[in-house]
Amino acid sequence: MKTPKIGFISLGCPKALVDSERILTKLRSEGYEIAPNYNGADMVVVNTCGFIDSAVEESLDSIGEAIAQNGKVIVTGCLGARADEILERHPQILEITGAHALEEVVAAVHKHLPPMHDPYTSLVPPQGIKLTPKHYAYLKIAEGCNHRCTFCIIPSMRGDLVSRPVNEVLLEAKRLADAGVKELLVVSQDTSAYGLDLKYQTYDWQGKEVRTRFYDMAEALGELGIWVRMHYVYPYPHVDEVVPLMAAGKILPYLDIPFQHANTRILKLMKRPAATENNLARIKAWREVCPDIILRSTFIIGFPGETEAEFQELLDFLSEAQLDRVGCFAYSPVKGAVANELPDAVPEEIKQERLARFMAHQAEISAARLKLRVGRIEQVIIDEVVEEGAVARSKADAPEIDGQVFIDGATHLKVGDLVNVEIEEVDDYDMWGRLLD
Ligand code: SF4
């Protein structure tokens, strides 16, 4: 009997990527083969993203391409919540499921392409199938979100917060570390809210009681002896507890903390978590405990009703906060988002003008902060070895979104190696280092 082959397209954020890995792991464990292209596949699964309009378009285009080149297509992921819209464009689709619907996707695959009888013909490694390079992996600790930020439709697509029990998360993390992963990127919609839905339930982990809670999980992950990086954390008071773990070198001194704005009125209009917290005071306190902490954030410019004075407050916040890495988007309405009903939309040209001012302002801050690192000795992880040398990342840089460290001539290094370099040069985003080891 011919082995059934599945083609797979994974779009969207790291949380969607983890869903893709789970689906592939399950299918592989049932004997399906993963085809590298459409032609070699018996069927294609497209894991879509529906976060902003451009992502919706990309997803619809990918579905169209898979239909044109293969013909048998199953759609899953965030955009699956808008099945009517997908079917309007692509009525030939076989099945559609929503986000993190592992069982439904697998059932849909079984229906249209039954598995072989003997699932033991193909072995799955204990850490599952990973779509990331071997040396780092995303660790998804929860699904969904209890917040209702007015610009976001994720809760309507992914539902309320559902945390994974901490022993499950730690077991997965340990398997990944045992398989040679050197860096874990902890992701969820709101990592600081981890465990709230489980009332911080306690589980046994290697003979110790561990609560399903942000601090306890961070502390236990810190025992694995690999890099652990925290993404999508909100500035709640209990986040302060985790900073000493960073100062002690247990987890990376890195917080990805999407502030989105600095003005309290706008934050309340956005219904942001921790909208009324004094973030500048909190940042100052974190730096006192852990002077090396790296703060990455994202902001939205031109949210409905944003005045010039409120925008200026945001620029002043940037000057004070001295964030290391910042991403920024001009507000654009997302179909189905509550913010679309808000009055006083900011005209497009003003949004773009503010965006440019914001970027120029932060570029100076980021560059100045990077310059402070010249002359320092830093541990870096090797991501790639090319003809000219090695391309690495420091503890301050998450894959894909932050900067890189270039080590000229170090072609003998291997992907995943951890080495020390002296930082010799920097530009606005990247650094160049001399290998010390
Ligand atoms: S915290 Fe806000 S932006 Fe993030 S997923 Fe939840 S509702 Fe969306």
UniProtKB/TrEMBL annotation:
EC top class named in words: transferase
Enzyme Commission number(s) from the entry: 2.8.4.4
Family designation: Belongs to the methylthiotransferase family. RimO subfamily.
Keyword Ribosomal protein recorded: yes
Source organism per UniProt: Methyloprofundus sedimenti
Residues reported in the UniProt entry to bind [4Fe-4S] cluster 2: 145, 149, 152
Lineage, uppermost ranks: Bacteria, Pseudomonadati, Pseudomonadota, Gammaproteobacteria, Methylococcales
UniProt keyword list: 4Fe-4S, Cytoplasm, Iron, Iron-sulfur, Metal-binding, Ribonucleoprotein, Ribosomal protein, S-adenosyl-L-methionine, Transferase
Reactions catalysed: L-aspartate(89)-[ribosomal protein uS12]-hydrogen + (sulfur carrier)-SH + AH2 + 2 S-adenosyl-L-methionine = 3-methylsulfanyl-L-aspartate(89)-[ribosomal protein uS12]-hydrogen + (sulfur carrier)-H + 5'-deoxyadenosine + L-methionine + A + S-adenosyl-L-homocysteine + 2 H(+)
CDD domains: Radical_SAM (cd01335)
Molecular function via GO: 4 iron, 4 sulfur cluster binding; aspartic acid methylthiotransferase activity; metal ion binding; protein methylthiotransferase activity
GO cellular component, one term: cytosol
UniProt function note: Catalyzes the methylthiolation of an aspartic acid residue of ribosomal protein uS12.
Main localization category: cytoplasm
Co-factor binding comment: Binds 2 [4Fe-4S] clusters. One cluster is coordinated with 3 cysteines and an exchangeable S-adenosyl-L-methionine.
Binding site residues for [4Fe-4S] cluster 1: 13, 49, 78
Full protein name: Ribosomal protein uS12 methylthiotransferase RimO
